[in-house]
Amino acid sequence: MHLIATALGRFLGLLVLAVGLPASLAAAELVLNENCPPGFELSGDSCKLRSLYQMYNSLQDAGVGGLKTGLPAYRDGFTPQQIDLGRYLFFDPVLSGDGTVSCASCHNPDLGFADGRGRSLGVGGRAMSRSAPSLWNMAFLQRFFWDARASTLEEQMQGPLYDENEMATSPGQLLDTLNAIPLYRELFRQAWPRDFETADAPIRLDQIYAAIAAFELSLISLNSRYDQYAHGYADALTEPEKEGMNIFRSFVARCAECHTPPLFTNQQVAVIGTPEPEDMAFDPGAELPLAEPTLRGGFKVPSLRNIALTAPYMHSGRFATLREAAEFYTAGRGHAVPEGEDLKIHWHIWEPDLSDDELDRLVDFLQTLTDESFKPSEPLQLPSGMRPVHNTIAREGLTHRDGAPKK
Amino acid sequence: MNKIALVIGAAVLLAGGYYVGQSGQKPATVIKVDSQPKAAFTSTGAEEVAQSSAATVRSLVTPTSGELIVVKDGESIQDAVVAASPGAVIKVMPGTYKETVYIDKDNITLSGVIEQGKYPVLEGEGLRNDAVLYSGNGVTVENLYITHYKGNGVMGQAGNNFVIRNNFIVDTGVYGIFPQLGKNGIVSHNIVSGIEDAGIYIGMSDNVDVVFNQVFDSVAGIEIENSRHALVESNFVYNNTGGILAFITPGLPIKSCGDVLIRNNFIVDNNHENFAIPGSLVSNIPAGTGVLVMACDDVVVEGNIITGNDSVGITFTDFSLAGNAANDPDSEPNPNRPKILNNIMRNNGNDPAPAVRVVLAAMLETTGPDIVDTVGMDDGCILNPERYRTIGIGKYTECDFSTTANIASYTLPEPVPARSMEDMDKGKLAFYGICAGCHAYGSRMIGPPTQIIQALYMDNPEGIAEYAANPVKKRPDYPQMPPQSHLDEETRLAAARYMLQVTH
Q1: Is A350–B280 a contact, with Cβ atoms under 8 angstroms apart?
Q2: Distances (CA, A) of A329 to A65, A345, A361
Q3: How does pLDDT run across A267-313, given as a tens digit for each residue?
Q4: Does A149 touch chain B (CB under 8 A)?
């Protein structure tokens, strides 16, 4: 089955050319958006992030603090056209080796830009060992992947693009495919007019990466009910949610010590000792890429914004619900560390002895961090002529929610 | 488990000094009379605070508006905070208050009223998490008696310009007083005891004075962590496991620590058994530690009376003390440029903690030193080293200054101002940050285009602001607008003004 799909995919690029483009997508008719996405001001020819959080100080400009704390350093400044081109590429399965998956397959906008799975699936339904992270608020992150091994999105995306189990393409195939689609050449020209002054100028890899990064960096979620509270509207949260917020930032639960506002991450690597799904071997995490034995089992602290949308939780999706994820922290320091592993468990992992009520209130509060008001629209049609795949393949349910494969 | 960690931590701690091998050298006593005064002390924080004249030292007061709210026994302090406007003074009468008070507003003064020696008591009953949480700027917390909470007594998250003073904090959880991620604050005249981590803990903060406090019966007395420009002066710190600490904790988002003055404190008999939470950094501190500097740079130890600490008087060390924590490749581990001026040191090291004793035995010593540098830093300085029993300071030179008196305070002469907005008009931020989610300039998004709204409202931003607070269903082909009353009137109006003049 997989083989057939792969074999079919090999001919995909040709197929697209042979079938030709639908008349409605003739090159001249598709014009990239001249306006910035919501949350950005067009300044000169580039889009600049705007948020009420820019009114606030932040100690050492670190972007960690309390309610009215400024944002961490961020990346913006792409043109509206580059961002919009990235949107087309993001949803287009033509980027994968066999045309069966797009970026959106694992980062589905309808699933919090994640995929609702414990461990993601690549081409041919192949199972990964880690959970797809949400793409909301990537603009503020300094390191990417659960094990923090990439420092830019451009570097990061080459992982899934070229991994034989994920999107399984190659730089050569990617360039050949896109350069063979006249509409993409036209759209890249609109995004980088000076690079395409001659008719034969080819699409380059750095442009592909930049466009996808531009789109991903435009996904801003800073307008949750929590944010309304933070900016001064006390009634934005209910009493149980405020109780939850106080537990969250208390020095008993200590959630905010690592999931620090305003991004709800301090962007550090932490060893907390969560369990893997039962069929999976222990994941050493950041130990390997950072060459640091004391970070064995360490993973990047994820942002909790939109966390209610992205179950299951933790790097390999062991916990099906927010309640279970919260409960992990009160079940005892190191309680889930496999025998024989000697992990340097983070000092904030202790035994806070949270009550059932307190865990419920924490979940109440975490649900106030949801905001999809700037969710981008999906392209009605893709420049490759292919159909979007993320809402078909990604939802077929090849795994249980805990990430274990179905028998 | 914890004891093992403690033993290992302590063994590593002193093994460094032994390796440096300076222990056998006893500095000769040099008797001299200076003909020239020494240079003035300089630090990277000195410039910022240099304008402080004697009259304005530590003059920070948080702003008040004249609004007064009195809370009586049986009433709720939190209700008063909810009712308070920025600038309010909340006076809490003597009585017992069983609640967590959280202050997410600016310029609130929470002030106990003391009558005939009776304080208002915040009683945690061993059930509640923290007594006072604040995130606003310009918050004062004073004259409270806080006891039996599980978390912290007073905890700040990012508030600048804070004053925490004259409080009793007794037998209360993890930290007694813990301002975190704030700039410019005073922690003074508090009496803190029975804390299982640090009595007073300044975490990831800038420009804080910790002065005139009494801290005892805790694991760590006063701890300055990942902070810059901190003055720890005139505190009475006794019977803790460790007296005064200046740390970089690895793995935190703000990674530096420096310009910490530990001056004129009484650091006495800090020999309490270590009862820290397993896994915590302070669980590594050997009982009998006076001053402990881990990885923090430019720490000056001056004019302290350091006596009766049974393991070591002053320790400078690196992350080897934190053997139970993961390394942080982005944190610099060494206590760079240590500076030890004249201190009064007696009777230290008389009964070293077992782990320290083992290491000393290998050096044929039974008594702990006054001063140890386990790294053997080569950029340190000290005055009159011959006065002390020392290990590991062979590469220290003589300090070229003898006093830090020119730094009266590390607090700022003026409060930290609000962020400079430059061209960042609040209306613009609200418009693009919120309104633009539904209103594009010339095309239909979720709501009608901005151009159409401009045509409708022209010179009437008030009309937009008012409608946005209480929208009604207007257009059959559009969803009803959600109310924007979460924005205050000023912000709504500013956004409306901005909306009327955008051109693309």
Answers
A1: yes
A2: 22, 12, 14
A3: 999 999 999 999 899 999 999 999 999 999 999 999 999 999 999 99
A4: no
Are A378 and A349 in the same domain? no
Give the per-residue pLDDT at A399: 38
Tokens of A248: 């969250």
| B272 is a domain residue | yes
Q: How many CB atoms lie within 10 A of CB A223?
A: 21
Q: Is A400 on the interface with B (CB under 8 A)?
A: no
Q: Are residues A103 and A183 in the same domain?
A: yes
pLDDT at B186 over 60: yes
- The answer to whether residue B33 scores a pLDDT higher than 80 is no
Please compute the mean of the pLDDT values over residues B427-434 and round it to a whole number: 95
Instruction: Collect all residues of chain A within an 8 Å Cβ-Cβ radius of residue B150.
Output: 252
Q: A interface mutation test: which of B434, B439, B444 has the most A CBs within 10 A? A: B434
- Per-residue model confidence as pLDDT tens digits over B116-130: 999 999 999 999 999
What burial letters (b/e) apply to B468-486, b meaning 16+ CB within 10 Å?
beeeeeeeeeeeebeebbb
Which chain A residues are within 8 Å of B80, Cβ to Cβ?
none
Interchain contact A345–B (C-beta under 8 A): yes
Owning domain of residue A153: 14-221+374-395
Q: Is A283 found in the same domain as A190? A: no
Give the nearest partner residue to A223 out of B174, B329, B434, using CB atoms. Answer: B434
Contacts of A46 in chain B (CB under 8 A): none
**Judged by CB atoms within 8 Å, which residues 198-237 of A form the interface with B?**
222-223, 228-236
Which chain B residues are within 8 Å of A76, Cβ to Cβ? none
Interchain proximity A35–B325, CB inside 8 Å: no
Q: Give B206's contacts in chain A (Cβ within 8 Å).
A: 59-60
Count CB neighbours of B438 within 10 A.
Answer: 17
The C-alpha of B349 sits at a distance from chain A's nearest C-alpha, in angstroms, of 29
CB contact under 8 A, B324 and A35: no
Distances (CA, A) of A228 to A50, A71, A234, B150, B496: 16, 16, 8, 29, 18
For residue B55, the model assigns a pLDDT of 57
Contact A59 B152 (CB under 8 A): no
Residue B378, classed as helix, strand or coil, is: coil
Quick check: pTM over 0.95?
no
Asked, for residue B412, whether it belongs to a domain, the answer is no
Domain shared by B179 and B305, yes or no: yes
CA gyration radius for chain B? 27
Collapsed DSSP state (helix, strand, coil) of residue A253: coil
Q: How close A173 gets to chain B, by Cα (Å)?
A: 36
8 Å CB contact of B130 and A250: yes
d(CA B300, CA B404): 8
Residue whose token pair is 């509270």 = A229
DSSP letter, residue A383: T
Q: A201: which 2 tokens?
A: 């100028």
Q: What tens digit of pLDDT does each residue of A333-343 get?
A: 999 999 999 99
Residues B241 and B245: their CA atoms lie apart, in Å, by 11
A406 or A201, greater pLDDT: A201
Is B403 domain-assigned? no
- Provide the pLDDT for residue A77: 97
DSSP string, A126-182: -B-SSPPPP-TTGGG-S-BSTT--BSSHHHHHHHHHH-TTTT---HHHHHHHHHT-H
CB contact under 8 A, A290 and B329: yes
**Mean pLDDT of all residues belonging to chain A:** 91
pLDDT at B54: 54
> Within 10 A of A355 (CB to CB), how many other CB atoms are there?
12
Q: What is the mean pLDDT of residues B78-88?
A: 97
Residue B261 and residue B233 in contact, taking contact as beta carbons nearer than 8 Å: yes
From the CA of A340, how many Å to the nearest CA of chain B? Answer: 16
Domain that holds residue B443: 426-501
